[in-house]
Specification:
The complex is a heterodimer. By secondary structure, chain A is an alpha/beta fold. A 6-stranded mixed sheet of chain A has the order 10-12-11-14-15-16, with helices on both faces. In chain A, β2, α2 and β3 form a beta-alpha-beta unit. In chain A, α9 packs across α12. In chain B, α8 links the parallel β5 and β6. Chain B is 36% helix and 14% strand. The relative contact order of chain B is 0.12. In chain B, α2 crosses α8 and α4 runs parallel beside α6. In chain B, strands 2-1-3-4-6-5-7-8 form an 8-stranded mixed sheet, with helices on both faces. Chain B has one domain: Rossmann fold. Classes of the chains: A alpha/beta, B alpha/beta. β9 of chain A pairs parallel with β2 of chain B.
Chain lengths: 390, 318
């Protein structure tokens, strides 16, 4: 084990160095740019064996990933915001072709207006593209998830997107525990694809026209694989715990065992929320948080079971669906609760769009509101915009 | 070894019969013409852009691609996809994960829509990065797969479904984009323009040069389309020859910046000879539209003069 101080992007680039993928096609975009920057210096200095492809767009970045992965290589890339939006078409193709690409998404707002700071509009906007999505609170989680993502992708044959907050996580330096190179190397193992374009012993055709007779079945296979990937994520996380001592589940719960009011919140803001929970607990208020790590596949039974005994829930969305109803996490979790016949008063907050600072006092306001709801059961307004100027 | 069609057609095929391209379409002989230049002992990975060729050659659970591996992923990205494959080949080869004594070649195909228009950025990127690959554009001068919409490769005045020849607009108003020149300006080692002609010597020899020249190479092939152009299916080879003999489609190559015109017609035919058999140019022959033919001829002459000048300039420069 190595103790270091790294930014989120440095940590991910370092993990990629240890993974030593075959091909990394990438295109610069704030705030993920540093990843290909750090990584290309590893290439230039010969510390990795990777072919780095400095493509001319994110569309080509993911297209080159698809070609490279189909060819039989272990492939990684990184992007943010508009870059992920430009990849949109190819995200569906990567998953539809069942290619185990690992893509880091350093979360940033999506234009317009243009904004370089953090929210989750980018990865939430592509939540149905067939990628597994892992969300990370800290640099440590980003590092750990990237390493696990390689195995999860290759076992499930589904691409994985690892998401963490732009600037807040990507550029802030934190203490971090790194694994030894050899430990990572052994953990990810060698990539041995079953079918690949460069196989000298087998000729294959990939990406056919798939008409009414077969398309539906092929999409169902992907849906089944996504459902089944939950077990793979659990297995890989257990294996990772053995080498690191850090155990990851579908989600992390913080002081929810006896809580009455619970906040569901993703990524770095969960850190702020934990501080607020501690503070309110000193006042004797029974509050807790639930931080989903895996959003795709949606572990709806685990999440709803974890929330079952709450008396009020605040579901926090750092992305807006602009659908006249709620943010994406709220829509999905409230549907999941309903599907399990769990009826708990819940409220949705859209917060922190475009990097608007989310302070302890903001989250405290939310907690105080759900404490009130936990007592009187009344939700005045389902969807609220936290701290926005009206 | 001198070109011998009888020998070449004995080579193992990489594109088999049973595909669903139209009768009289130029694309299948273009594909065979190009792929016959790959040495039999070499492996081949083919990338295709979305288009007629792709949707007619690989319909699940069938494939026409034989003795080679094939991939299609999307419309605008054949070059980027191919560059990822080529990069993987380099790294796996270096790591000893592929047989040391076996070479794999990389060829990408795209129609003019997927090359001149939506795929231009991806193509430019791959050419600039210098991947060891050949990009082949089979140019039928419109979006034929979706039903003959105009592209930037569509010739001036052609009647297409998005620039139809009407009462006030006489078809496409703009001249073709000169893609071969644009790609040549990427300073890649080999760029060529060819067509289906005679015994397929020109397409074979250019493909062989492109495939076995290290680095990114580009070939543009005229690929007549009976449905979009409106000629009888049996006229495929004849219409190709007329394109060349009128100098509408000059056969030339640019090797390390040096131009060579591979065929100079002893008698350059007037462009009407190429236009007349095609329904897409029918309106140009109506009374009062002589100016359109004159204008078309002027474009053709200008390009031909340019090529002659470039050939002269780059050869005397040596």
């Amino acid at each position: 084990m190595i103790r270091e101080r790294l930014s989120g992007n440095e940590a991910v680039a370092f993990a990629m160095k240890q993974i030593n993928p075959d091909v990394v096609p990438a295109y610069p975009i704030t705030p993920s740019t540093e990843i290909p920057q750090y990584f290309s210096s590893f290439v230039s200095n010969g510390t990795v064996d990777t072919e780095f492809i400095p493509v001319e767009s994110e569309h080509s970045a993911l297209s080159a990933c698809i070609g490279a992965s189909a060819a039989g290589g272990r492939v990684m890339s990184a992007t943010s915001s508009q870059g992920l939006s430009l990849m949109y078409e190819m995200l569906y193709i990567a998953s539809g072709m069942r290619l185990p690409i690992v893509l880091t998404c350093v979360n940033r707002a999506v234009s317009a207006p243009i904004n370089i700071h953090n929210d989750h509009s980018d990865s939430m906007g592509v939540r149905d593209c067939g990628f597994i999505q892992l969300y990370c609170e800290s640099n440590q989680e980003a590092y750990d998830n990237i390493i696990m993502a390689v195995k999860i992708a290759e076992r499930s044959m589904i691409p994985v997107m690892v998401c963490y907050d732009g600037f807040i996580t990507s550029h802030s330096v934190e203490n971090i525990e790194l694994l030894e190179d050899s430990v990572v190397k052994d953990f990810v193992g060698k990539y041995e694809p079953k079918h690949y374009l460069l196989n000298p012993n087998e000729f294959i055709s990939m990406g056919p026209l798939d008409l009414q007779n077969y398309f539906f079945e092929h999409r169902k296979q992907l849906a089944d694989a996504m459902t089944d990937s939950k077990k793979i994520i659990e297995e890989v996380s257990e294996e990772f715990a053995k080498i690191s001592g850090r155990k990851y589940g579908m989600f992390e719960s913080y002081k929810t065992e006896d809580s009455d009011a619970c906040m569901v919140i993703l990524n770095s803001s969960a850190g702020t929320a934990k501080v607020v929970v501690d503070k309110l607990r000193e006042e004797g208020l029974k509050v807790g948080i639930l931080k989903p790590r895996v959003f795709r596949p949606l572990p709806y039974k685990d999440l709803t079971n974890a929330l079952r005994n709450q008396k009020a829930i605040a579901i926090m969305d750092k992305a807006d669906s602009v659908n006249g109803f709620s943010g994406p996490l709220y829509s999905e979790l409230s549907a999941a609760l309903y599907s399990q016949s769990i009826s708990i008063p819940s409220i949705n907050y859209i917060y922190g769009l475009g990097g608007r600072d989310v302070k302890e006092t903001d989250l405290e306001e939310v907690f105080r509101n759900i404490i009130k709801i936990s007592k009187d059961g009344k939700v005045d307004k389902t969807t609220n915009y936290l701290g926005v100027r009206e | 070894m001198a070109y011998n069609l009888k020998e070449i057609i004995k080579r193992k095929t990489r594109f088999s019969a049973g595909h669903r391209m139209c009768a009289g379409c130029g694309a299948p002989p273009v594909v065979r013409g190009v792929l016959s230049a790959v040495k039999e002992d070499d492996n081949l990975v083919i990338t295709s852009a979305t288009g007629c060729l792709e949707v007619s050659s690989c319909i699940y659970p069938y494939t026409s691609w034989k003795n080679s591996s094939f991939i299609h992923s999307a419309f605008e990205n054949a070059s980027a996809t191919c560059s990822g494959i080529e990069a993987t080949y380099n790294v796996l080869k270096k790591a000893g994960k592929l047989p040391a004594d076996k070479t794999t070649k990389f060829v990408a195909f795209g129609g003019d829509g997927g090359t001149y228009d939506i795929g231009l950025q991806s193509l430019s990127g791959a050419m600039e990065r210098g991947h060891d690959m050949v990009y082949v554009c089979y140019d039928n001068g419109a979006y034929m797969n979706t039903g003959t919409q105009r592209s930037s490769a569509t010739p001036k005045f052609a009647d297409t479904t998005t620039a139809p020849a009407g009462k006030v607009v006489p078809g496409k108003l703009q001249a073709r984009k000169d893609l071969t020149e644009i790609i040549a300006k990427h300073n890649i080692p080999y760029v060529a323009q060819t067509a289906l002609l005679n015994n397929f010597k020109d397409i074979h020899e250019k493909s062989e040069k492109a495939i076995y020249t290290e680095g990114a190479c580009f070939i543009s092939v005229l690929s007549p389309c009976p449905r979009g152009w409106g000629y009888p299916t049996e006229m495929l080879m004849e219409i190709s020859k007329l394109a060349v003999d009128t100098c509408f489609w000059p056969l030339y190559e640019i090797k390390d910046g040096v131009y060579t015109i591979n065929y100079k017609p002893a008698k350059k035919l007037p462009v009407e000879e190429f236009l007349k058999p095609q329904k897409r140019f029918r309106h140009m022959f109506k009374e009062g539209n002589e100016w359109m033919i004159e204008s078309f001829q002027k474009e053709v002459d200008k390009k031909w003069e340019y090529l002659l000048a470039m050939e002269n300039l780059t050869n005397n420069d040596k």
